[in-house]
Design goal:
7 strands, globular
Length: 181
């Protein structure tokens, strides 16, 4: 079904509608993501997967922001989010509050496993925090060191990286596959 601009920009859901969403045990941690269009798009992605919340860290801009709003198509108004001064503090907080939380960093790193070698079934019970980083600098060393798993998306062409939103979406849907099966 093809949706027009009007259908994409739905009115804000009621509190009752929001309470009825069966949230997945997924948190998305933005470690100094700078582009407001990326931030807004990740709000939209968080809504699409019914994530528990979005964690904005460091230099990541927070709502309200007209640029975030434009890309988020309003989802920043109902997707739960928090701000932390840095990703290390955010991950520590999540791990202390949520038993058995697995932190998954999406990054090109010598410790990284290809998404094709990750056993997504390890996420069948959740909970999971997906950490994504700055568009150029990537996930901070401190956050990478706290990750239980580092995954990377193989690149076979000339370009050596994907947009942070695309990478986040690929990994989130891999995790969801593991949760659903």
């Amino acid at each position: 079904m093809k949706l027009g601009a009007k259908e994409l920009r739905v009115n804000k859901p009621t509190e009752q509608e929001l309470a009825g969403i069966p949230r997945k045990p997924i948190w998305i941690v933005l470690d100094n993501v700078m582009d407001t269009y990326n931030i807004g798009s990740i709000f939209r992605l968080a809504d699409a997967v019914a994530a528990q919340g979005l964690i904005l860290c460091g230099r990541t801009e927070t709502p309200p922001s007209s640029r975030i709003h434009k890309a988020a198509v309003g989802t920043e108004e109902w997707v739960p989010w928090q701000y932390f001064a840095d990703a290390k503090t955010a991950i520590s907080s999540l791990k202390s509050q949520i038993p058995n939380l697995k932190a998954v960093a999406v990054e090109q790193d010598k410790r990284a496993a290809s998404i094709f070698n990750v056993q997504w079934s390890m996420f069948n019970k959740g909970p999971v925090a997906v950490i994504v980083g700055h568009e150029t600098e990537g996930v901070s060393k401190e956050a990478l060191d706290m990750a239980d798993v580092i995954v990377e998306i193989p690149m076979w062409g000339v370009n050596k990286s994907l947009n942070v939103v695309v990478s986040t979406g690929i990994v989130l849907y891999g995790i969801l596959e593991g949760m659903i099966k």
